[in-house]
Amino acid sequence: MIGVGQPRSAADGWETARKLDRPPTIENDENGILLDSGCEWAVFRLAHPGVITQIEVNTEHFKGNYPDSCKVDGCILTTQEEEDMIKQKWDLLGHKWKPLLPVTKLSPNKNHVFDSLTLELQDVVTHARLTISPDGGLGRLRLKGFPSSICLLRPREKPMMRFSVKAGFRANL
To answer: Which string of b and e fits 40-71 if b means at least 16 CB within 10 Å?
Structure first.
């Protein structure tokens, strides 16, 4: 799902199993998004702390098995907080997830691009959580933006890297 280039086939992405406990009839909300409580999610650590300015959610090659909708949340975690979250399977009380992309309807076989005009948050993040509903597949998830000069350390740890952003610099985070 975070591979290089465009997906070559559905096997080049991430596909979840069809939910066996789906109700026989599923209704839509006023925005056409399925009212189904089921979802699947994945958490990604960014290469660098940064500000996300564009999100790409690619459903290419997923025609009848694409998710109805998705959302992307972000948070900033220290190394110790990340270790704690992993131990608790990313389910800690008071976690810091903030919406980067609200629940958004998806279409089959399409590269969906959401730029900074549609994003709700322009904050530094270190981790992103993609949630798809109710199930389906994605070819790629791309988060683009700017690295931050923030430095997150473990106690008694020396800084490993610091970044400074120059005008016009862009990075895939």
So the answer is: bebbbebebbbbbbbbebbbbbbeeebbbbbb
